[in-house]
């Protein structure tokens, strides 16, 4: 198992797992007080809970564009930022400014960390970014940033990808290799409730950026969604 | 006693659930935890809409659709503006035309002007509020309207809507409004009858018992929805539109006419091979306006056309277009979604918002 998902019946099938339809909960005639439930009933219940945990993953965002891209890194003319000089590390995340003329950002999303890391750590679900590109010469970036505030990826991405895309759909899988940092509190209940007023979800953002060398380049669409590995 | 729902599901093997072995309290305990995760922690992501460059700013209404899931008590809503020196706007977020009940309005109630980020800066600045949705009916469609009134030429950049996960749930205190089951059940009692101690059938509206667990798993199947949605300002110059009487691409706000290719992951619930897989059923909602004698919105899912007729409408209108399928048999359950449209005889069809939400019955 590559996720924190329970075992399912038909786990080895080409489409692993499926729900087992149960009789209506309103009848429950197959369950009796103080009698052990049958193993078939127990298996179906556990299977269904595990399968829903596997397949209740979330779509995150769609975007359409198709306008010509600026032939810039986005650093020029900024009041509140500047490209790093030669003495600083030439990290991927510094190659563009991540302004809105060279990037899009989506978030904040509540992170569900149920992907199994190699050391057993629970990691953020795989985030898939699909970018429809009409390139002549373009570099494509995709990154995940942790936190509630929308900080550009040069502040330290959880994971970042740099690719030279081909024309058409480019699929980028972002697998974070470390857990999201401690969560920030947020109100999650009406004020009158006497318990659980603040939740502590771990937030994240998805950034998609580009560096174009030709005014003919276009980003035609972006899709972002959670995926199972 | 309230308890915190787990942040993830359990890696529970089926091996211990064997014929001939007692099936006792710990099975129920695992299910209590997983049901709490499914309904209270795995919060719905409703909408994340980045408006096109070409939207020229000014007053605007933007609609995002929302159906409350049973575990949600609060909703995060937010906006961003484009950079502009000295710009400001008020934003009023309403629900079906009525004021939202705010836990934290943070000025999204129209009471204060929100400043735009200074020109030539690049750090996004978002404004967010938290609404109390505990009074909304689960399963009912609501229209969240972001009404932007600009004092200057401020330009809305993004809107987003999220359900907020629960920190604690207390099904034993309010079993009809709280999700999950009582974590103190089922209990282990040493003794002769330990295998059966605490095992009760229960009823769906009580907080304990296996019937309650079945009912809650059903909620996670039918009332948790995967949302795919985009939205644009309800302004004729900025909404995706067509005047063609021949089915084809929308003209998007950047004055480009083309068919974007969007992808999503289809939910897979039944069938274990491509031949037996049952596609994800989704309900389609839209905001639209149409001249002439109406038009047709076509959703193309993996090459399959789904045509939805819309009547003529002189003002932007909410419509439930119908249902359609997202195939889930492809690798990674990946599905391609595209949109086309036409008018029937004359006029212009505008579609500023369209949303797809899982529909399981």
List the helices and strands and how they pair.
The complex is a heterodimer of chains A (229) and B (361).
Chain A: H1 39-55, E1 59-64, E2 103-111, E3 115-116, E4 122-123, E5 126-134, E6 138-146, E7 159-163, E8 168-174, E9 186-187, E10 198-199, E11 202-212, E12 218-227
Antiparallel strand pairs in A: 1-12, 2-11, 3-4, 5-8, 5-12, 6-7, 6-11, 9-10
Chain B: H1 25-41, E1 45-50, E2 60-67, E3 74-81, E4 88-95, E5 98-99, E6 102-104, E7 114-115, E8 126-132, E9 141-150, E10 156-163, H2 210-222, E11 227-231, E12 241-242, E13 262-265, E14 280-290, E15 295-301, E16 304-310, E17 313-326, E18 334-343, E19 349-358
Helix pairs in contact in B: 1-2
Which shape of chain B, going by the Cα principal axes? globular
Total helix count of chain A?
1
The rounded distance between the terminal residues' Cα atoms of chain B is 32 Å
Biggest interface: chains and residue counts? Answer: A-B, 105 and 117 residues
Approximate strand percentage of chain A: 25-35%
How confident overall, as mean pLDDT of chain B?
92
Radius of gyration of chain B (CA) equals 24 Å
Secondary-structure element order of chain A, N to C: HEEEEEEEEEEEE
Element pattern of chain B in H and E? HEEEEEEEEEEHEEEEEEEEE
Q: Helical amount among residues of chain A, as a percent range?
A: under 10%
How much of the sequence lies in strands of chain B comes to: 35-45%
The number of strands of chain A is: 12
| SS class of chain A | mainly beta
Q: Give the helix level of chain B as a range of percent.
A: under 10%
- Low-pLDDT stretches of chain B are none
Describe this structure as you would to a colleague.
The complex is a heterodimer of chains A (229) and B (361). Chain A is 7% helix and 32% strand. In chain A, the strands form four sheets. A four-stranded antiparallel β-sheet of chain A has the order 1-12-5-8, with no helix packed on it. A four-stranded antiparallel β-sheet of chain A has the order 2-11-6-7, with no helix packed on it. A two-stranded antiparallel sheet of chain A has the order 3-4. Chain A is mainly beta. Chain A has one helix spanning 39-55; strands spanning 59-64, 103-111, 115-116, 122-123, 126-134, 138-146, 159-163, 168-174, 186-187, 198-199, 202-212, 218-227. The model of chain B has no long low-confidence stretch (mean pLDDT 92). The two termini of chain B are 32 Å apart. Chain B has a five-stranded antiparallel β-sheet with strand order 1-10-3-8-6, with no helix packed on it. In chain B, strands 2, 4, 5, 7 and 9 form a five-stranded antiparallel β-sheet that branches. Chain B contains two helices and 19 strands. At the A-B interface, α1, β1, β2, β5 and β9 of A face α1, β1, β3, β8 and β10 of B.
């Amino acid at each position: 198992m590559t996720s924190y998902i329970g075992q399912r019946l038909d786990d080895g099938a080409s489409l692993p797992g499926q729900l087992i339809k149960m009789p209506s909960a309103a009848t429950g005639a197959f369950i009796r007080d103080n009698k052990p439930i049958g193993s078939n009933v127990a298996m179906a219940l556990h299977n269904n809970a595990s399968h829903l945990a596997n397949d209740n993953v979330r779509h995150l965002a769609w975007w359409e564009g198709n306008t010509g891209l600026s032939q810039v890194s986005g650093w020029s003319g900024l009041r509140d930022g500047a490209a790093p000089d030669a003495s600083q590390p030439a990290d991927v995340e510094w190659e563009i400014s991540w302004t809105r003329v060279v990037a899009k950002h989506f978030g904040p999303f509540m992170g569900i960390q149920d992907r199994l890391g190699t050391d057993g750590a629970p990691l953020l679900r795989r985030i898939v970014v699909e970018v429809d590109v009409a390139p002549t010469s373009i570099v494509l970036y995709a990154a995940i940033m942790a936190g509630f505030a929308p900080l550009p990826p040069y502040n330290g991405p959880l994971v970042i990808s740099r690719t030279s895309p081909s024309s058409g759909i480019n699929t980028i899988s972002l697998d974070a290799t470390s857990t999201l940092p401690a969560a920030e509190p947020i109100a999650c209940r009406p004020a009158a409730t006497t318990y659980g007023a603040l939740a502590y979800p771990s937030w994240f953002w998805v950034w998609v950026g580009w560096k174009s060398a030709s005014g003919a380049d276009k980003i035609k669409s972006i899709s972002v969604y959670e995926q199972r590995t | 006693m309230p308890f915190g729902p787990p942040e993830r599901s359990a890696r529970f093997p089926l091996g211990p659930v064997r014929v001939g072995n007692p099936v006792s309290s710990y099975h129920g305990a695992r299910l209590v935890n997983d049901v709490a995760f499914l309904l209270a922690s795995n919060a719905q992501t409703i909408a994340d809409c980045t408006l096109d460059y070409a939207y020229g700013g000014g007053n605007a209404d933007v609609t995002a659709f929302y159906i409350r899931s049973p575990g949600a008590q609060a909703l995060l809503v937010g906006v961003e503006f484009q950079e502009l020196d000295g710009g400001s706007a008020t934003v009023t977020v309403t629900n079906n035309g009525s004021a939202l009940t705010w836990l934290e309005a943070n000025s999204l109630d129209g009471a204060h002007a929100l400043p735009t980020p200074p020109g030539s800066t690049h750090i996004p600045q978002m404004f967010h509020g938290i609404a109390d949705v505990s009074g909304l009916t689960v399963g009912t469609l609501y229209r969240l309207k972001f009404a932007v009134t600009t004092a200057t030429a401020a330009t809305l950049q993004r809107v987003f809507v999220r359900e907020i996960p629960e920190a604690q749930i207390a099904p034993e205190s309010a079993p009809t409004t709280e999700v999950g089951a009582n974590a103190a059940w089922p209990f282990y009692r040493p003794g002769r009858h330990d295998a059966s101690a605490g095992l009760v059938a229960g009823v769906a509206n009580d907080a304990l018992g296996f019937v309650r667990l079945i009912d809650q798993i059903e909620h996670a199947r039918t009332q948790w929805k995967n949302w795919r949605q985009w939205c644009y300002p309800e302004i004729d110059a900025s909404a995706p539109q067509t005047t063609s009487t021949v089915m084809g691409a929308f003209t998007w706000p950047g004055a480009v006419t083309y068919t974007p290719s969007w992808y999503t992951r289809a939910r897979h619930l039944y069938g274990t091979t491509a031949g037996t897989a049952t596609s994800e059923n989704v309900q389609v909602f839209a905001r639209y306006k149409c001249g002439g004698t109406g038009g047709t919105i076509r959703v193309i899912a993996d090459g399959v056309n789904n045509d939805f007729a819309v009547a003529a409408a002189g003002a932007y209108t909410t419509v439930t277009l119908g249902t359609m399928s997202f195939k889930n048999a492809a690798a990674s359950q990946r599905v391609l979604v595209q949109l086309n449209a036409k008018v029937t005889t004359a006029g212009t069809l505008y579609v500023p918002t369209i949303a797809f939400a899982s529909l399981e019955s």
